[in-house]
Amino acid sequence: MTTIRSFTCDDLFRFNNVNLDPLTETYGLPFYMQYLAHWPEYFQIAESPSGEIMGYIMGKAEGSGELWHGHVTALTVAPEFRRLGLAAKLMSILEEISEKKRCYFVDLFVRVSNKVAVHMYNKLGYSVYRTVLEYYSGDVDEDAYDMRKALSRDVEKKSIVPLAHPVHPEELD
Ligand SMILES: CC(C)(COP(=O)(O)OP(=O)(O)OC[C@H]1O[C@@H](n2cnc3c(N)ncnc32)[C@H](O)[C@@H]1OP(=O)(O)O)[C@@H](O)C(=O)NCCC(=O)NCCS
């Protein structure tokens, strides 16, 4: 049976099987520690019965006024555990926490070329709010979709009305 539990510092030394994936970013240790210290409830991990890390989600709540929202910083599932509904489960946990915090919406950034993830987020009720030009740097810079899902507090769903034009990273609020 899969166990979903809070991420701990020790997991940072055991998550290579998940992070050795070209679409999964590996950050410096302080970055993870910051999330563990500030938003531990948003950092959840799925573990197999044999103790293998299957995937995890990392997020936070930020913004003020009607921009108060939950944010998905990382979501990843090891290749051998994909298509089991794990990502959908981890997203629903993050959304539940964001509801409890009275957030207006949940948002995330995803590479425009990451068709699997974009399709999944669409299926989970997310839509493209705006395109962020050259958000991801690399040999060739790549655009991101900023995708959003309105939560129950945003009764009129104002937060997800798409912007008419793409934005540059320095214009992000
Ligand atoms: C994207 C990712 C997190 C999906 O994880 P997952 O646990 O396999 O996803 P789920 O099993 O919860 O899938 C939920 C739905 O998403 C869609 N989906 C997921 N993977 C898919 C695939 N390979 N092809 C088509 N649809 C897919 C399906 O609609 C699926 O529902 P279904 O299985 O009932 O049809 C995983 O592929 C991954 O870790 N990719 C690399 C990292 C990444 O891209 N992260 C997102 C960056 S923002």
Automatic annotation (TrEMBL):
InterPro entries: Acyl_CoA_acyltransferase, GNAT_dom, NatB_acetyltransferase_subunit. GO terms for cellular component: cytoplasm; nucleus. Its main location: cytoplasm. CDD domains: NAT_SF. It catalyses: N-terminal L-methionyl-L-glutaminyl-[protein] + acetyl-CoA = N-terminal N(alpha)-acetyl-L-methionyl-L-glutaminyl-[protein] + CoA + H(+); N-terminal L-methionyl-L-aspartyl-[protein] + acetyl-CoA = N-terminal N(alpha)-acetyl-L-methionyl-L-aspartyl-[protein] + CoA + H(+); N-terminal L-methionyl-L-glutamyl-[protein] + acetyl-CoA = N-terminal N(alpha)-acetyl-L-methionyl-L-glutamyl-[protein] + CoA + H(+); N-terminal L-methionyl-L-asparaginyl-[protein] + acetyl-CoA = N-terminal N(alpha)-acetyl-L-methionyl-L-asparaginyl-[protein] + CoA + H(+). It is found in: Cytoplasm; Nucleus. It holds the Pfam family Acetyltransf_1. Its EC number is 2.3.1.254. Keywords: Acyltransferase, Cytoplasm, Nucleus, Transferase. GO terms for molecular function: protein N-terminal-methionine acetyltransferase activity. Residues 2-152 form the N-acetyltransferase domain. Catalytic subunit of the NatB complex which catalyzes acetylation of the N-terminal methionine residues of peptides beginning with Met-Asp, Met-Glu, Met-Asn and Met-Gln. Proteins with cell cycle functions are overrepresented in the pool of NatB substrates. Required for maintaining the structure and function of actomyosin fibers and for proper cellular migration. Component of the N-terminal acetyltransferase B (NatB) complex which is composed of NAA20 and NAA25. Belongs to the acetyltransferase family. ARD1 subfamily. This is N-alpha-acetyltransferase 20. It comes from Sinanodonta woodiana. The lineage of its organism: Eukaryota, Metazoa, Spiralia, Lophotrochozoa, Mollusca.
